[in-house]
């Protein structure tokens, strides 16, 4: 029997090593033993095989890659704002994202401006922003990218962004089904016919995924008469969504808070969106937006022109744009002078005493130190059961 002990010890050691390897792989893939635990959504959540086909599962898994299922992620940043480049580079690295920078624009030849520019009189900041967004659209067209995600350099996101994007992908796939366009649905109750071209739905079926904004509205039932689908997909029990007392709708309205319980995120067609903080653009969408805003006509600030294209206003055709409430990407406001917050808007000379990101619970930027030093007691700016936080801005 004594001769067998070394063999037994070797076997136990091998078994233990295999167990650790399996556990490490499970953590890497985001598997959890309790879907409702606070760890359940920090990494990719598993998807049940009885809900989606193997092909559908593979498409949904693409959101866990380094570009969130898009072909590239572009970040627009002024070369002079090295502070913003530093912070978003670190945020991307800590959440497993690969980003490509596109320079913001501060100078141009007046001859490049499309019709309407003189009448619009946008000013330097708005005109530079317009050209930077058009440069991204043009690059998407030139490189023939299937899709691209565009971020402004001052945005922030939850450290659980990949799990959030998978939920958004399930919802967008549902909304883009022609026979579901006007339905009210819950993401867990319906099985979409999965697209093979994008986790977010057939790239020929959508132009823009407006997932970072300063407010939006749900489409009204009356707008169905002018061709605007009124469907919604609710993502219930989403612990990454703050309770309603913490949700700041900004330039939107209170429908999300009044019509849905706490911890609900809702995907719908975009209506009256403000701010181009983050958006996915298909190749089709890039071509259309480049033509409409870069060549045909310019008449207002970039986000308002995006809104006109999504809403079919100001003589623009209606485009297929989806959005989400609360947004998945939002302005981060660091400690410091408020005058540094924008190159366009005037936020005054006051000092911002507290860093924050509205509607984002486990902010990547507020958790830099936790992520860098391996801590897991993440900063939650909007804890459940507590009164609304006065952010002072």
TrEMBL record:
InterPro entries with a match to the protein in the record: Collagen_mod_GT25 (IPR050757), Glyco_trans_25 (IPR002654)
An MF annotation (GO) of this entry: transferase activity
Family label: Belongs to the glycosyltransferase 25 family.
Keywords (A to Z) from UniProt: Glycosyltransferase, Transferase
Pfam families cross-referenced by the UniProt entry: Glyco_transf_25
All residue ranges annotated as the Glycosyl transferase family domain in the record: 71-173
PANTHER family xrefs: GLYCOSYLTRANSFERASE 25 FAMILY MEMBER (PTHR10730:SF53), PROCOLLAGEN-LYSINE,2-OXOGLUTARATE 5-DIOXYGENASE/GLYCOSYLTRANSFERASE 25 FAMILY MEMBER (PTHR10730)
Name of this protein: Glycosyltransferase family 25
Domain of life: Eukaryota
């Amino acid at each position: 029997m004594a001769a067998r002990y070394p063999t037994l010890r070797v076997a136990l050691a091998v078994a233990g090593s295999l167990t650790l390897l399996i556990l490490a792989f499970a953590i890497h893939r985001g598997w959890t033993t309790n879907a409702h635990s606070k760890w359940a959504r920090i990494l990719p959540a598993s998807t049940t095989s009885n809900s989606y086909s193997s092909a559908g599962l593979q498409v949904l898994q693409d959101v866990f890659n380094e570009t969130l299922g898009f072909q590239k992620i572009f970040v627009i940043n002024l070369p002079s704002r090295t502070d913003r480049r530093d912070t978003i580079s670190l945020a991307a690295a800590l959440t497993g994202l690969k980003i490509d920078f596109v320079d913001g624009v501060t100078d141009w030849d007046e001859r490049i401006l499309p019709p309407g520019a003189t009448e619009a009189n946008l000013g330097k900041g708005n005109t530079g922003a317009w050209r930077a967004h058009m440069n991204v659209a043009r690059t998407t067209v030139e490189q023939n990218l299937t899709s691209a995600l565009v971020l402004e350099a001052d945005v922030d996101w939850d450290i659980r962004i990949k799990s959030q994007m998978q939920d958004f992908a399930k919802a967008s796939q549902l909304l883009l089904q022609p026979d579901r366009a006007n339905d009210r649905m819950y993401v867990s109750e319906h099985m979409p016919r999965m697209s093979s071209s994008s986790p977010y739905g057939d790239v020929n079926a959508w132009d823009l995924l407006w997932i970072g904004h300063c407010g939006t509205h749900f489409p009204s039932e009356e707008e169905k008469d002018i061709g605007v689908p009124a469907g919604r997909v609710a993502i219930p029990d989403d612990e990454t969504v703050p309770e309603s007392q913490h949700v700041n709708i900004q330039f939107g309205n209170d429908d999300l808070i009044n019509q849905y319980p706490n911890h609900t995120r809702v995907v719908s067609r975009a209506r009256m969106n403000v701010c181009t903080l983050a958006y996915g653009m298909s190749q089709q969408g890039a071509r259309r937006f480049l033509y409409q805003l870069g060549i045909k006509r310019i008449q207002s600030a970039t986000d308002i022109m995006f809104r006109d294209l999504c809403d079919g206003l100001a003589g623009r055709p209606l485009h297929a744009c989806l959005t989400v409430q609360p947004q998945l990407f939002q302005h981060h406001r660091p400690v410091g002078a408020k005058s540094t917050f924008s190159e366009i808007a005037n936020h005054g000379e006051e000092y911002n005493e507290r860093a924050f990101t509205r509607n984002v619970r486990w902010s990547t930027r507020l958790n830099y130190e936790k992520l860098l030093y391996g801590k897991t007691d993440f900063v939650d700016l909007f804890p459940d059961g507590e009164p609304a936080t006065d952010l002072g801005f």
